[in-house]
Amino acid sequence: MSGNIHAPLTSGTATMDPPADQPQLRVASLGKTFSRNRKTVHALQDVSFDVPRGQFLSILGPSGCGKSTLLHIIGGFEQASSGSLLLDGRPVAGPGRDRGMMFQQATLFPWKTIESNVAWPFIVDGHKRGEARERAHELLATVGLSGFERSYPAELSGGMRQRAALARTLGLSPDILLMDEPFGALDAQTRELMQEELTRIWEHSGLTVIFITHDIDEAVFLGDRVLVMGARPGRIIADVDVELGRPRGTTTKKDPQMAEYHSHFWELIRQEAGPQADRNGGSDRS
Amino acid sequence: MTGTALHQPQAVEHRQARQGVAASEWMLERRWPVALAGAVTLLALWQLYGSTVGLPEYILTPVEIARSAAELTASGRLVELASASLRRLVFGFTIGTATGVLLGLLSGVSRKLGDLLDGPVSLTYPIPKITFLPIIAIWLGFSDPARIIVIAAACFFPAYLNAHAATRSVDQSLVWVAMNAGAGKLRTLMQVVLPAALPRTVAGIRQALALAFIFMFATEAIGSGTGTDAGLGGEMFAARTTGEYEVLWAALATVALLGGTVDATFRWLVGKLMIGQELEAGRG
Amino acid sequence: MANPTATATAAIRNASPGPSLRRLLGIALLLAVWELVANTSGTRLTPTLREIGTRIAFDLETGMLWFHGRLTLMLAFSGLLIAVVIGCATGLLMARSRWAEAMMQPLLGATYPIPRLALYPILILLFGLGAAPKVTLVVLECLYPMALGTYVGARSVTKDQLWLARNVGAGWLRTLRDVTLPAALPAMLTGLRAAAPIMLIVIVVTEMIGENRGLGYMLMLARANFEPDGVLAVVAVLGVLGFLFDRLIALLSKLLVFWERGVRM
């Protein structure tokens, strides 16, 4: 099965699609620099890749490799220093509902019920309160939170809060889901359950997902394709298609192919981060 | 701007614009240059308006205030007034804060004493302490002791409450570490509990200091005496009725200057002490 | 923040009857000492608790307390209300604009230890005697805790919360109403709790300085008439008012900031 794994690419795209079929997202030689203590830090350097519609793309990298910054730029929250970012052929100008963002923390408002939290985007969009509530109920059912509509975030476990956050993000009806290590703060068991839940929901949705993680198994299990990033400067060191069958579930995790992917990616990351990890302990995430 | 590819010329332009950005960034980062510029501008506008358009006779311009303050300092009157005020402040603050901190620390360490003091303190805490002045004035007259007692009473509460809370909220594991190391009760108290309680206790003392100034002024303004014994507060109200506006403004400037200087000195001193404590802890 | 061990010990402490008895004992001791002094001295200088109580009842009956108290509270609350409005606006502006922050934060810090009360003679010259200088002084004093509370609260809004609002497409007004203000509410109420006693002190002090109405005037009148029971009656009333305000704001915080008492997991 190792033959299916592409050779690591230093940069550029792995476009197999004919040019006529425009990628949904095109990232071209994106760069991000900022100055800290009068020194210029290259958070991202010459990052290029395309994302076709409906793909689940995992971006895997050690902490401090700029993968979150990349996602923030795609989300329109931060600005690139150079390069271009095209969404359906048009440059990205700022945040928008077409790109639904999920954060590492659930970021639910503690003063609103779960229902009101999920309904909030509809209210902002000018929907009537009753209609918004109805939509919220549907979405909460999708993520398996029926019966918790009236609870407050503080009364829910971390995993349930992330489910609610997912429901809220889905409510934006985004074209692309941007997920910034959304399961990173959860305990191991909950994380596994959430991964299976996300796979199930995604396989029925046809959404494009960009999923940031530093967990190799998570990246492989969820993704159609994995981009591996290296740090200092943040750049893409490998672009690999994951050829595991769909639908994926508990059995997928026992697939011997998983182990092969794991050791391949681990080798890549160790080569990249190994000698550097001793020199630079810090992370450039704020 | 994301999405538009930055070409070389734009990048150069960017660099030139950065010079201006860097200057304002420097000011914003430090904050005080902005505040200083704002304050100076305000004073300048005040002065400009006063010397061109003109102000009512009871409002002096900054230059006039500075001049009369200098004259009154040279004549010794301002110094006498300020020392009368400061004497009350120092006595009241010292007595009130020392009592407050001592009892606060003791009642923080001893549950029994803490419970005993808790009742009377929470009973008297909501009373505006300035109301003690008329009753004490009945007993002692509007005298220095009466004023000092009221200032002390005002300073007692923040000092007591913060010292008490600081000692109570000392991390229990620190105490356990000390006990585990075989430290006796006294050693644990002196070397673990008190240092750990210091920051909050000091914050309470700073609150007391601000209150001491308010009460110094208030006790002088109410039932004020005459002459230099009136202090800055009494003299300001006397000057208002007699129309000695330059005395009024000079006294106001002195109160402001004293309040600011004493607080700044206190904070500077605390900064020095705290660093010393940290170094000590590092060595041990 | 809350130390679980400390919370547990506190719970145990509150549950056992001993300490709360000791607390009552403390109050009883204080009052007993007062009674002893009052009874042994036998002069009018130290009225007994009973005499003070009688005086409060008398002042209530004659309408004196109601007349002066109403005036005091009206001025006090007008000042507090204005301070809340201006303070919240200032705090929000400071949290939103870096220039406003750089301008106001050092100025508030530097002027904090200067007693605003010293401005009272100037305010009298500007506005004349009466309500205006008093209310202005209450505003000036209460502005500090309100502005700083709102500033701290508005800054506690996380970057993620603001990004979420941008992602959803919420405008600045919507973000202010649905995100910033609720997040700032706990700290704003803390500011209000600090402002209330200051309000009471300032208004009483201004009434004690050359005035012919208000509770502060009642204090000075009773002193001038050499009536210690009259002074202490007003002191007691002011103490009760201060206590009630504090409890009221604490209750308000509990009701408004309901989400902070929920279970934390």
Automatic annotation (TrEMBL), chain B:
CDD domains to which the protein is assigned, alphabetical: TM_PBP2 (cd06261)
Transmembrane segments: 89-109, 121-140, 208-227, 247-270
InterPro entries, per the entry: MetI-like, MetI-like_sf
PANTHER family: ABC TRANSPORTER PERMEASE PROTEIN MJ0413-RELATED, ALKANE SULFONATE ABC TRANSPORTER-RELATED, MEMBRANE SUBUNIT
Subcellular location: Cell membrane
Species in which this protein is naturally found: Haloechinothrix aidingensis
Pfam families linked: BPD_transp_1
Protein name in the entry: ABC transporter permease
Gene3D superfamilies: MetI-like
Main location: membrane
One GO cellular component term noted in the UniProt record for this chain: plasma membrane
Keyword hit for Iron-sulfur: no
Start and end residues of each ABC transmembrane type-1 domain: 82-270
From TrEMBL, chain C:
GO terms (BP aspect): transmembrane transport
Chief location: membrane
Domain ABC transmembrane type-1: 69-253
Transmembrane spans: 21-38, 73-95, 107-129, 183-210, 230-259
Gene3D superfamilies assigned to the protein according to its UniProt record, in alphabetical order: MetI-like (1.10.3720.10)
The organism's place on the tree of life at top rank: Bacteria
Membrane topology: Multi-pass membrane protein
PROSITE patterns referenced in this protein's UniProt entry, alphabetically: ABC_TM1
Protein family: Belongs to the binding-protein-dependent transport system permease family.
Protein's recorded name: ABC transporter permease
Organism: Haloechinothrix aidingensis
